Amino acid sequence: MPKVDPIGSASSYAGDVARAVRFGEVVKRGFAKDLVEASIRYVLSNPDLTTTLVGLSTLEQLDHAGQSANKGPLPGEALKLIASIQQGFVGRLGRCTPRKESMSEGKNALGTRSIKSIKQARLNAGAVL
Predict the structure, then answer these.
(1) DSSP code of 107?
(2) Cα separations in angstroms, 11 against 6, 19, 26, 72
(3) Is the pTM of this model over 0.90?
(4) For every one of its 129 residues, what pLDDT tens digit does the chain have, with 9 covering 90 and above?
(5) Can you tell me the distance from the alpha carbon of 114 to that of 68, in angstroms, rounded to the nearest whole number?
């Protein structure tokens, strides 16, 4: 396995890969053709997101992303499965457990403000989003 900086929320690349593999259950249960489709449809399942950026290198990847998006959001059962998989990450490998002091300040597990808390702060200040 290559040695690279972590790209997800685990403390190592190997940890990120191990976490990603666990989402294969979404494919095994027939909710998506592959993890790419599952990822795109997962994002479409969140009505608060208005833009999704997908990295593509080929026309085939573009076609696959479009076909995946055309299938629409994942069903509720798939979202529950994903949530249960994510719950298994809490407290593992150090960086997933939110710090209590950060959460009381409207910050996420990494100590930075969440988009929701930033929007709320702007609204409180009278700014238009």
Answers:
(1) B
(2) 6, 11, 24, 33
(3) no
(4) 667 665 566 788 888 888 889 999 999 999 999 999 999 999 999 998 888 888 999 999 999 999 999 999 999 999 999 999 988 887 654 444 333 433 344 444 444 444 555 555 555 554 443
(5) 28
Q: Which tokens belong to 77?
A: 């059962």
Residue with tokens 């026309």: 59
Query: What distance in Å separates the CA atoms of residue 67 and residue 62, rounded to the nearest whole number?
Result: 9
What are 110's two structure tokens? 């990494």
Q: 63-66 long-range contacts, Cβ below 8 Å, gap at least 24?
A: 64/36, 64/37, 65/36, 65/40
CA neighbours closer than 13 Å in the CB half-sphere of residue 3: 0
Q: Using a CB cutoff of 8 Å and minimum separation of 24, what contacts does 12-20 make? A: 12/93, 15/93, 19/89
For 119, the 3-state DSSP assignment is helix
